[in-house]
Amino acid sequence: MELARAKVPTYAFTHGNPKTACDALDRAGLRTYLRGVHSAEAIRAFKPPPRVYDWVCGEVDSAPERTALVAVHSWDVHGAVRAGLVGALATRLEGRVPAVVEPPHVSAPRVDLVVDRLLALPA
Length: 123
Prior knowledge:
Blueprint: H1 2-5, E1 11-14, H2 18-27, E2 36-39, H3 50-59, E3 68-71, H4 74-82, E4 86-90, E5 106-108, H5 111-120
Parallel strand pairs: 1-2, 3-4, 4-5
């Protein structure tokens, strides 16, 4: 919701079935805040190779360095950072940022705190 209030274009990005993602977002009442849902299934690929993140940046017409990926999986944020995106990790599932991944630009225990930290980054 904070991203919508800040007028930041926001999308969901999955490598799974987009209908499944849409259904989950609808149940959580979040899809209304999104401009769209994208799935790497469209290019028959899985995250985290850089080409997957490059593809979605093209789909949303946003340069990688001006695009942030917010996730609760460090491997996903790792892939995004390696592809040149801003990485934002909510550590609520993993408890910490693993030492074996590219460090995210921001991290916090909860997604709302991650979003606050993203919005506080210099433009």
